[in-house]
Amino acid sequence: MGTEKKEPLLQVKDLSIDFHTAEGVVHAVNHLSFDLYPGETLGIVGESGSGKSVSSLAVMRLIPDPPGKIVSGEILFHGKNLLDYSEKEMLKIRGNLISMIFQEPMTSLNPILTCGSQIAESLMLHKGMKKKEAMKAAEQLMRDVGIANAEKRVNEYPHQMSGGMKQRVMIAMALACEPEILFCDEPTTALDVTIQAQILDLIKKLNRERNTAIVMITHDFGVVSEICERVLVMYTGRIFEEAPSQKIFKMPKHPYTEGLIDSIPQISDVREALSTIEGTVPNPTEKLEGCSFWPRCSRAMDICKREDPSVKIIEEGRRVRCWLYEGSAEDTINPDEESVE
Amino acid sequence: MIREETARPDFLEAPEPEKNILLKADDIRVTFRGKDRKTTVKAVDGVSLSIHKGEILGIVGESGCGKSTLGRAILNLIPLTGGKVYFEGQDLSTLSKKEMKDMRKKMQIIFQDPSASLNPRRTVEQILFEPYIIHGYKDKNYIRKDILRLLELVGLAEYHLSRYSYELSGGQKQRIGIARALALKPELIICDEAVSALDVSVQAQVLNLLMDLKKELGLTYLFISHNLNVIYQISDRVGVMYLGRLVELGPYKSLYEEPAHPYTEALLSAIPQIHEENRRERIHLQGEVPSPINPPSGCHFHTRCPHTCEVCSMDVPPWRKVGDRHFAACYWNPKSNEHII
Question: CATH second-level architecture of B9-106+186-339?
Answer without folding.
Answer: 3-Layer(aba) Sandwich (3.40)
